[in-house]
Amino acid sequence: MADLHDELDELPLAEPFEAVLVEGADPPAAEPPVPAAGGPLERAHALLAAHPVADGYSGLPWALRHLPWYDLELGESAVDTDVPRLRRGHVGALFCSLHLPEGLAADRAVAATLEQLDLVRAVIAAHPEGLRLARTAGQVLDARNCGRTAVVLGPATAAALDDSLGILRVLHGLGLRILTLAGTSWASEAGLTRFGEEVVREMNRLGVLADLSGASDETVARALAASKAPVVCTRSAARALRPHPANLPDDLLAGLGAAGGLCMVPLTAEQTGPTVRDVADHLDHVRAVAGPASVGLSGTYDSGAAHPQDLPDASGYPRLIAELLHRGWSDSDLTLLTWGNAQRILRTADFTAKAAQQRREPSTAQIAELDA
């Protein structure tokens, strides 16, 4: 069986600051300048109006399952995320988690993930003035230009594959773009098995991003080496500042930056701390270790987590950006943080998938064959 890692050795990774265009896709629109006048909060709103937030993790799908009725366009106080707050927070893209609650029976993982995916699609269809499904980087940009929040499906839990690459392809066909590599026999504390590496290669071929938040350090290190597309940590901060198991140590942050990956820092009190300044400390640290092209934002709203003061819901991003402006972050670093880095990894995944599909047939590997 051909190994994608060998087949695509000639394919260069995108430079951190370089936009990767998919053939046939519209080029990115020219970005308007950010006014320099005004205080930090006024400048934050101006910057976010031009370069909105790509939010790396939202637990909204599972939260909505428990509501008998809701209207996200009018506003919904029972959840942390609705269209008015997305607009006040200047959220241009939302990665919608399809993760499952702890304790759910393993034999329900596939069905529960499909049910959540179906729910998200129904929610988007019911709120066309505020939300739009996006499968590609170009569609994310189109949604932003139309004044909608682009909804990207994922991350989903790896258990939803039921150890089947065929199910991975079905989920991708339904719109899945991100899969978390943790909690299975092939992505465990010991790292990726041979089948796990084959899953990563098939994800590269499809354009599904590997999410390494919550994965073991061994899995993170092996996935960084095995993946030809950038990897993403949808909710990881700096372990050097807060020893949470989902946070990354400096050596893995440095490796993530060297591989062109993206660490999306969560706005949760447990992982980053109880104040806006604590979140900013983590962003400072990740930027210093991984580089400005490898740091992003993850609201982690509607996930059941407690959030820092002044960041209670999706409308709070301007206050965080104002704090970073106060600390001296440049406009160029901030535009990478909010929007540019997420667009880059999505575009690079699209480009890598198109190249891989010309060289590699869909994998028929079975876990029993590779991990016997």
UniProtKB/TrEMBL annotation:
PROSITE patterns xrefs: RENAL_DIPEPTIDASE_2
Pfam families: Peptidase_M19 (PF01244)
EC number, UniProt record: 3.4.13.19
Highest taxon of the lineage: Bacteria
TM regions (residue ranges): none
MF annotations from Gene Ontology: dipeptidase activity
Keyword terms: Dipeptidase, Hydrolase, Protease
Protein known as: Dipeptidase
Source organism per UniProt: Streptomyces fuscus
Lineage, highest ranks first: Bacteria, Bacillati, Actinomycetota, Actinomycetes, Kitasatosporales
